[in-house]
From TrEMBL:
Superkingdom assignment: Bacteria
Name of this chain's protein: Glutaredoxin family protein
InterPro entries cross-referenced by the UniProt entry: Glutaredoxin-like, Glutaredoxin-like_YDR286C, Thioredoxin-like_sf
Amino acid sequence: MSPLLRRKEKKSPGERLVTLVGKPGCHLCDDAEAVVERVCAETGARWEKKDITQDEELYRLHWEQIPVVLVDGEQHTFWRVDPERLRQALQG
């Protein structure tokens, strides 16, 4: 199957990866982490946290927007995470 067709296939939440990009000492990052952790626990999605101060590429891309939430490597939101919007993104 071609890569273009694969991208359009619907993934189950358990196949999705949420990445929270933030930095230590950021209160918005702490708030975002609580939402991401809760929604991923509810939906079965996997999640990871990346420190922008440890990755030059992430810093270059997102330094003005942290926290940034990526879903399967694509930017979903930044600054504040809406739990319902994240849930919907993980469902389809």
